Amino acid sequence: MEFAIKFDFKASNNKAEYEALALGMKMAQDAGASHLTAYFDSQLIVKQVTGEYEAKDKSMVIGLDDNDWRAPLLRWLEEGHLLKKRWEATKIKTRATRFLIQGDMLYKKSFTHPLLCCLSEREGVHVLGEIYSGCCGSHIGTWALANKALRVGYFWPTMKQDARELVSKCERC
């Protein structure tokens, strides 16, 4: 599988290679791959991924971090672990009834849509960017942009907020 990526942020060579790895792993997983071989120039990235080195930069840790909105839901649905604060635990238990795990992906149940694939906020912003100004982008309004992402089958809690920020920053509009 070959693909090209354009980053909308400044990144070191290691960060760019790491981001390419993370995105490639996600794409391979979405395509149903059960085995993946990756080749790298950077021993730093290889040793970080194999666990020999620990990443100093929090943004270079593969997998869900605790700041990801999906982490508490996944911990509860997969392992039955809840947060120590009682009100937060109750909130997660209640909220978790609207989600399910298939494979290793979290999905949100919906009455009006099929299962919605739950994305991190960073992944969601990327999806919005593609819908808004990608090769078939239409520079639509905030409400239409968020709803188009929903109709395509994605969900994250800040999608409307993220759409509003993206649309407001567009110089062409």
Can you describe what's shown?
With 173 residues, the protein is an alpha+beta fold. It has three domains: 13-60, no CATH class; 64-97, no CATH class; 116-169. The protein is built from seven helices and four strands, in the order H-H-H-H-E-E-E-H-H-E-H. A four-stranded mixed β-sheet has the order 1-2-3-4. Strand 1 (99-102) and strand 2 (105-108) form a beta hairpin. Helix 3 (71-79) crosses helix 4 (86-96) and helix 5 (121-133) crosses helix 7 (159-169). The two termini are 35 Å apart.
Concise structural overview:
The protein is an alpha+beta fold and 173 residues long. It has 7 helices and 4 strands.
Q: What would the keywords be for this entry?
A:
four-stranded mixed sheet, 7 helices, 173 residues
Number of E-type strands: 4
Strand line-up of the largest beta sheet: 1-2-3-4
Cα(first) to Cα(last) distance is 35 Å
Strand content: 5-15%
Largest sheet: number of strands, sense, barrel closure: 4 strands, mixed
Domains counted in the coordinates: how many? 3
- Helix fraction by DSSP (H/I, runs of at least 4): 40-55%
What is the H-and-E element order?
A: HHHHEEEHHEH
Question: Poorly predicted ranges (pLDDT <50, ≥5 residues)?
Answer: none
Structural class computed from helices and strand pairing: alpha+beta
- The number of distinct helices, counting runs of at least 4 residues, comes to 7
Write the layout of secondary structure elements.
Blueprint: H1 13-30, H2 43-50, H3 71-79, H4 86-96, E1 99-102, E2 105-108, E3 116-118, H5 121-133, H6 142-152, E4 154-155, H7 159-169
Parallel strand pairs: 3-4
Antiparallel strand pairs: 1-2, 2-3
Helix pairs in contact: 3-4, 5-6, 5-7, 6-7
